[in-house]
Amino acid sequence: MRLPDPHRSRVVLIGASQYSDPELPDLPAVHRTITDLAGVLTDQVYGVVPEDHCTVLLDDGDLRTVGKRLRAAIAEAEDLLLVYYAGHGLTAYPRGDLYLSLPDSEFASPEFSALEYDKLRQAVLDSTASNKLVILDCCFSGRAITDTMAGGEGAEIAQLEVAGTYVLTSAARDQLALVLTGEPHTAFSGRLMRLLREGIVGGPELLTIEDLYTWLKKHMAAERLPVPLNRRAGTAHQLALGVNRAFAATAGPELRERHVAALRQGRDGDWQGSSEALHRILEEQTRVLGPEHVDTLRTRQSYAHSLGGAGDAMTAAQLLRQLLADHLRLLGPDHEDTLRTRQFLAVNLGEAGHREEAVGMLRVLLADRGRVLGAEDPHTLRTRHMLARNLLFLGENDEAAALLRQLVTERERILGGEHPHTKRSAEDLTQAESGVSS
Q: How is residue 47 annotated by DSSP?
């Protein structure tokens, strides 16, 4: 099971909410459904494709334009091709073939004014995309519903089948079933979007179209709504359409616990093992929680610093520079995580041999931490210690000694003389006063 490749996938959303034929009532909910569904499927964190790979054909009455843009998207799709339609479903006598209405379609003669499903089916069939998904959220009217939708599920949807494709239909039996009073979307698509936005409690990490269908079938039946129907061929049903956001609610705490354990592993001396564990956690958090979730950002910070602890200070510094840019953008300059990233970056730059740059960064950070946290906050004192140590490496013993004398005094008063941090700063003071740099 996997998510589609967003760069090799295409989505086409077709919707008709306004009609010129008085026999076809307008469907205002379709307009909002198409618009909101486009937002869900192109969400920067949880979406299927980027915006420029999502073709929206909303209230476009020109059948030729619809066909041209549909064929263009179909030709570009390599991994997933998703074609979605919402509007009135029409049938033509005597065969009862299915037509998807457009704004200028005529109820009495859809074969000359609507999108013939068989043509859509053939276009999708001709696609070289590995996975093809067709979703139809449309109603049939009058006697055509009885003729076309009677019998078992296989008979009901047989005319919609596309080889190598997963086809899902809302199976609405009349116009009133399409939208429920007080709901902003069509009944079927509104519930589909809710699943993609909220997830399925107790469900898997990734949601396939089969997972979504199973839930919709069960719960729409419980609500006494038309039950969705499906037809699948090949392995398209195994492709995920999104991350289960409800899974993230339970996965988040567990990943945080693993994060803490990995940090402890590093502090106990196994920085290599710590970095490997943190890298695995980071991959899961990025996938499940998203790249900009606060937990993901903190693991990026810990992972980079653990690489420095394992001896790869240069890579650590590179990763921390990238993280700092994201922290400044997402959290602001005075956030505790931003300040910590600046400290880790300076420390690793120093360890990588860039002592002068590290000293410059630590001088500014010392002032900022003193302003934000206070002069005697443990983090501010830590920054002063790191500044003094880097000055020692540059041979600036007098300035280092001055900083360390103040630091020893403050730590003895705040932490006590036997605290490891107090002892370490006293050792560094002795080194600075002796004029010896290690």
A: -
Query: Position of tokens 């049939």?
Result: 140
Q: What is the pLDDT of residue 234?
A: 56
CB-facing half-sphere around the CA of 4: CA atoms within 13 A: 32
- If you compute the radius of gyration of the chain from its CA atoms, what whole number of angstroms results? 30
pLDDT score, position 84: 94
> DSSP of 299-368, one letter per residue?
HHHHHHHHHHHTT-HHHHHHHHHHHHHHHHHHT-TTSHHHHHHHHHHHHHHHHTT-HHHHHHHHHHHHHH
318, with CB counted inside 10 A (0-12, 13-18, 19+), is: middle
Q: Which residues does residue 166 pair with via DSSP β-bridges, in sequence order?
A: 133, 232
- Which residue ranges in the chain fall short of pLDDT 70? 94-95, 139-164, 171-178, 232-237, 436-438
Among 115, 64, 65, 68, CA closest to 87: 115
Measured CA to CA, the distance from residue 121 to residue 118 in angstroms comes to: 5
Expressed in percent and rounded to 5, the helix, strand and coil fractions of the chain are 60, 15, 30
Tokens, residue 291: 């790249």
Position 152 scores a pLDDT of 36
How far is the CA of 145 from the CAs of 19, 192, 272, 339, in angstroms?
21, 23, 65, 64
Give the Cβ contact number of residue 182 at 10 Å.
Answer: 5
| Residue 400, C-beta contacts closer than 8 angstroms, at least 6 positions apart | 388, 389, 391, 392, 428, 432
Please give the single-letter amino acid code of residue 62: D
Tens-digit pLDDT profile for residues 130-162? 889 988 888 643 222 233 322 334 444 444 444
14 membership: H or E segment, kind and range: strand 10-15
Compute the distance between CA of residue 33 and CA of residue 89 in angstroms, rounded to an integer: 16
Residue 100 near residue 119, CB atoms below 8 Å: no
Residues in the chain, how many? Answer: 438
**DSSP characters for 162-231?**
-TTEEEEE--B-SGGGTS-TT-SS-HHHHHHHHHHHH--TT--SEEEHHHHHHHHHHHHHHTTPPPPEEE
Angle, CA 358 vertex, CA 357 and CA 363 arms, to 5°:
100
Tokens standing for residue 169 = 């239909």
Cα–Cα distance list, 350 to 316, 345, 370 (Å): 11, 9, 21
Please return the burial class of 163, using the count of CB atoms within 10 Å of its CB with bins 0-12, 13-18 and 19+.
exposed
Task: Report the DSSP beta bridge partners of residue 2.
Answer: 239
Q: How far is CA 410 from the centre of its chain?
A: 46
